[in-house]
Design brief:
318 residues, Aspartate Aminotransferase, domain 1, Aspartate Aminotransferase, domain 2, 2 domains, 9 helices, 9 strands
């Protein structure tokens, strides 16, 4: 008996099927994974133990934590923005542009959806005021997350908005509620530990970024262009125009290097064609160096750039 073939039932033009999971690539620069060495395991363990001792029996119920785009003439629904440590560029919107954005939203009568999930990961710790706080007349829905500042696997975020908006969101929920235990553990952890944890995390992330930028300079030289981001976990890298990162993806993966092609992170495919987003938070310093060296070898083999691999020998002779 043959297996049922679902393929004829699928609409044309869908993305190709996902590959079967065989583990992460040897040099994984994809996703939004964070630094395993900076997950505050001991403090989270204590928080989990304390909250389970106090609230464990209440886990028998649901709802535990519930209280605690352009056609011509079409009107936009809302403005979505990551103003603080934007993904993938790591830039921070100035206060002047924030005021301009608020005025633009008011002039067109549309709300702003402010995604602030990277705002804690700023190297100097000085985060600008949120659009939500700057808005005098409402119209901003502010969201944040603990996935980047504590641990991605926790999958806990939050929304700050006026009650009339929150009430409509709650009416659309169909997941029976988010995980109450994770929320309670975070509530237990954050008050005594969050302010000390974040600077340690950002110092570790900044050190890995320095390793990544040094490795790119060493193995690609001027063939790799990038700005030093203000924070976060990503580096937005421009390779020579001859490089198509969509075509680079598969040979790089065969060599053990996983990257995010730039077209996935740009509304203009031409702009993203030779760009790639590299996540530096999770791999070790040694993995970053080896991964960039391998990526440079693949780029030279597939696209002829860079024209040499590394300048270690030149440095040694200098």
């Amino acid at each position: 008996m043959t297996s049922f073939d679902f393929a004829p039932l699928l609409a044309p033009g869908l993305p190709p099927p996902a590959s079967k999971w065989t583990g992460f690539a040897k040099y994984n620069f994809t996703g939004g994974h964070n630094d395993a060495d900076h997950v505050p395991v001991d403090e989270l363990l204590k928080a989990a133990t304390d909250v389970l001792a106090r609230e464990g029996r209440n886990l028998a119920t649901y709802g535990l934590a519930s209280g605690n785009l352009k056609r011509r003439g079409a009107r936009p629904k809302y403005i979505y923005t990551i103003p603080t440590v934007q993904n993938p560029t790591g830039t921070i919107m100035s206060e002047t542009r924030r005021h301009e954005l608020l005025r633009l939203a008011a002039a067109h009568g549309v709300p702003i959806f402010e995604d602030d999930c990277y705002a804690d990961l700023i190297w100097d710790g000085r985060r600008p005021p949120a659009l939500y706080a700057m808005s005098r007349h409402g119209g901003v829905i502010h969201i944040g997350s603990f996935s980047k500042s504590i641990a991605p696997a926790l999958r806990v975020g939050y929304i700050v908005a006026e009650w009339d908006v929150l009430a409509r969101m709650l009416a659309l929920k169909n997941d029976a509620g988010s995980g109450a235990l994770e929320q309670m553990v975070l509530g237990e952890f954050c008050a005594p530990h969050f302010d000390a944890h974040v600077p340690r995390l950002t110092r570790g992330l900044r050190a890995k970024l320095e390793t990544l930028m040094d490795a790119l300079n060493e193995h690609f030289g001027t063939a790799a262009e990038f700005d030093d981001p203000k924070g976060g976990i990503f580096l937005w890298v421009k390779l020579p125009d001859a490089v198509d990162t969509q075509k680079l993806f598969q040979p790089a993966l065969v060599a053990g290097v996983a990257i995010n092609p730039g077209a996935e992170w740009s509304t203009d495919p031409g702009h993203g064609k030779s760009r790639t987003r590299l996540c530096f938070a999770n791999p070790s310093h040694e993995t970053i160096r080896a991964g960039v060296a391998t990526l440079a070898e693949v780029c030279r083999r597939e696209f002829g750039v860079p024209d040499r691999i590394a300048n270690v020998a030149q440095r040694a002779r200098a």
